[in-house]
Amino acid sequence: MTAASVLPFALAQSVSAAPNTSSSTLPVSGFNALWAVPEVRTALIVGSVVVIATALVGVLTVLRGQSFAGHSLTDLASVGGSAAFLLGVNQLWGFVVASIIAALGMHAIGVERLRGRDVSTGIILATGMGLTSLFLSLSTMRPQGGSASVNVLFGSLFAISPSVVPIVIALSVLCLLMLTIIWRPALFSTVAPQLAHARGVSTGATNAAFMVVLALSVALSSISVGAVLSTALLIGPASCGLMLAKRVRNAMFAACGIGLFCVWGGIVISYESYSWMHGHSWSVSFCIVALVTMCYLLSRLVSWLRGTSRRSHSRSLGLISRKAASANV
């Protein structure tokens, strides 16, 4: 069954299982109907686990100013995903292997050095996308290969096999454990790199470990929303959390909450769109990324309003101080 046919099939099954369920009863019976559909239940579990891991890694990624590295890894991860699809291997392993190899290679060269070499970086990324195109073209020659491009580049939470769920959970736990271990030295070397080096923090090992963590999070987000859209899931909720919260800890909670809202909301919207679109449905990856974009724009608006309020308050205090000084004179 292809990714495009999974959602209509799941909806048909849910309708036959719960004929009295309607969208107007979504808070209770509607959620039970969603949870009763195996494809939707798998999507909710995988999406929730992945977005918590990627949101927390994303916070440190944004703080370290390495969003460029995350975007580059998504382009190179698609090579592994497409190769895995061609070989008939689980795409998740292709994403993981390609992401880790690319991450360690970027660490060996130096992320900042790569960023400064626009031509070389562009050629490397273009070569990766070219290989992805080749592998996907070859995949179309295989039976059921017509959905290769959609599965690898744009993904579908509804098409994930239940057998993949334990692997996703295990990789997410591993990602979070590694993040917990390197969090303090990684944050310290980001805020005060010279002081961290003076105190004996192994910045090289810390940076390498962080790139591996980033690679795992990219692989997890790629299996959820596809390699092309995975940057949104990695950077979007984290950026929103950092704009809305004043402390890093609060930003982490906010990022997880926003990420869960986007994933669950995207799944529900995609599911419900089947009845709006008369037998068709919106892509779940599109719905998730659209909600991430909306949250990002709202977060920027809130941040701008806060900044405007502070500037206005500061000007008012300055004006009052000047009037008081003039009165004393």
Automatic annotation (TrEMBL):
The chain crosses the membrane at residues 41-63, 84-107, 119-138, 150-183, 208-236, 248-271, 283-305. One of its GO terms (cellular component) is ATP-binding cassette (ABC) transporter complex. InterPro entries: ABC_BtuC-like, ABC_TroCD. It is found in: Cell membrane; Membrane. The keyword Ubl conjugation does not apply. SUPFAM superfamilies: ABC transporter involved in vitamin B12 uptake, BtuC. Keywords: Membrane, Signal, Transmembrane, Transmembrane helix, Transport. PANTHER family: ABC-TRANSPORTER METAL-BINDING PROTEIN, IRON TRANSPORT SYSTEM MEMBRANE PROTEIN HI_0360-RELATED. Belongs to the ABC-3 integral membrane protein family. This is Metal ABC transporter permease. It comes from Bifidobacterium tibiigranuli.
